[in-house]
Amino acid sequence: MRILITGAAGFLGSHLCRRLLSEDHEIIGMDNFVTGKPDNLVELSGHKNFSFYKHDVSNYIFVPGNIDGVLHFASPASPNPESPTGYFNLPIQTMKAGALGTHNTLGIAKDQHAKFLLASTSEIYGDPQVHPQTEDYAGYVDPVGKRAVYDEAKRFAESLTMAYYRTHEVDTRIVRIFNTYGPNMDLEDGRALPNFLKQALLGQPLTVYGEGNQTRSFCFVDDLIDGIVRLLYSDEHMPVNIGNPDEMTVLEFAETINRIVGSSAGVTFLPNQRSVRDPQKRQPDITRARTILGWEPKISLEEGIQKTIPYFKKKLNIE
Ligand code: NAD
Ligand code: UDP
Q1: What is the spatial distance between Cα 120 and Cα 177, in angstroms, rounded to a whole number?
Q2: Are 201 and 316 in contact (CB under 8 A)?
Q3: What pLDDT is stored for residue 275 in this prediction?
Q4: Number of H helices and number of E strands within the chain?
């Protein structure tokens, strides 16, 4: 297939490009570097089947030649209000990437009779009242809250995707991605794993927000990409959760990272600046992924962190 991947310079986009190139697809990457890094494209740029356009997907997209697949991953994704690349600080860009970017990329898929895959998120469930989250749970969100720029953009993107499927019969898929980590993450984007792993490697205490009782379930990137590729190759049009159901508190997560890295600096508790609707619990129900895609994560947290450490050490210039 000849596949357009938006958000190609980002964490997940760069892994997706690499994986699909390894399966002999031709990949056209697109990104405007609002949160992604040219560094993430270095390994890809030498590949004979890879080309790249610097472009903002909120504007009309033109790519010459036939397209067989469109994978829309472009969007700021970090919820940390302290990070300049967090979506709290890019509110309009985030809404435009989810709304106009989804419209433009669906337009290409319709025109080209191409498969379309939307990168959605567990954030569409908001601060969930159903646990673990099943795909039929409609969520608990606030349309005017500060997180809404991301949540509602993704909810709109899902609705638009289903409208193109139902009205124009575009061959669409929706993946609801839960917290994922691994190499190529931006060390400065303020998400839990980059903050914690960087702090542990530098021998600093890990900054746990609130009491660290909120829970998350962290998936290693290779597992996630495998689930997404299976979904792409499937015939499933309704949303599918992809994530690791191994749930733990943020405090347990921090302590695990300290143990794996061998840091004795402990944790420091900070007021939770995300206390407005920082989801208190999050765990994917992956029954649909298991039954429809035959997928489940294989990489343990310990193994995944070990695979991530060399990238972080390189970026931090430490041995
Ligand atoms: P990321 O910030 O590393 O990557 C996003 C990429 O999109 C960046 O390279 C950025 O420059 C690009 N981008 C943003 N707006 C753009 C625009 N208007 N035009 C062109 N490019 C644009 O984030 P990520 O973690 O790789 O997330 C990728 C996708 O997966 C996002 O859609 C995000 O919502 C979704 N997602 C990620 C996670 C996760 O745990 N990483 C969880 C849920 C959903
Ligand atoms: N968190 C934390 N310390 C940090 C960064 C994040 O305690 O330095 C917490 C945050 O409040 C949230 C959880 O870790 O409850 C996961 O945050 P992340 O930014 O990874 O993504 P989210 O799951 O909120 O989208």
Answers
A1: 6
A2: yes
A3: 57
A4: 9, 13
| pLDDT for the residue numbered 99 | 98
Q: Which of 125, 150, 164, 209 is catalytic?
A: 150
> In which residue ranges of the chain is pLDDT below 70?
275-276
Per-residue pLDDT at 42? 95
170-222: pLDDT as tens digits: 999 999 999 999 999 999 999 999 999 999 999 999 999 999 999 999 999 99
Q: What is the pLDDT of residue 81?
A: 85
For residue 264, tell me if it sits in a domain.
no
Q: Would you say the C-alpha torsion 20, 47, 26, 315 has a positive or negative sign?
A: positive
User: Could you tell me whether strands 219-220 and 267-270 are parallel, antiparallel, or unpaired per DSSP bridges?
Assistant: unpaired
Does residue 201 lie in a domain region? Answer: no
| Domain hosting residue 119, numbered range | 2-185+219-245+283-299
The token pair that represents 119 in the structure block = 């990168």
pLDDT score of 80: 87
Would 273 be classed as within a structural domain? Answer: no
Q: Is the CB of 96 under 6 A from ligand 2?
A: no
Nearest ligand to the CA of 85 is 1
Q: Which residues pair with 120 in a beta bridge?
A: 176
Q: How far is CA 190 from CA 94, 148, 154, 249, 295, in A?
A: 17, 18, 20, 18, 29
For ligand 1, say whether the CB of 233 is within 6 Å of any of its atoms.
no
CA distance 254 to 242: 23
CB 284 within 8 A of CB 178: yes
This prediction has a pTM of 0.97
Structural domains counted in the chain: 1
Kindly report the CATH number assigned to the domain that includes residue 180.
Answer: 3.40.50.720
Domain presence at residue 172: yes
Q: How far apart are CA 219 and CA 196, in angstroms?
A: 15
Atom of ligand 2 nearest to the CA of 212: 7
Contact 90, 101 (CB under 8 A): no
- Tell me the residue type at 299: I
Structure confidence at residue 276 (pLDDT):
65
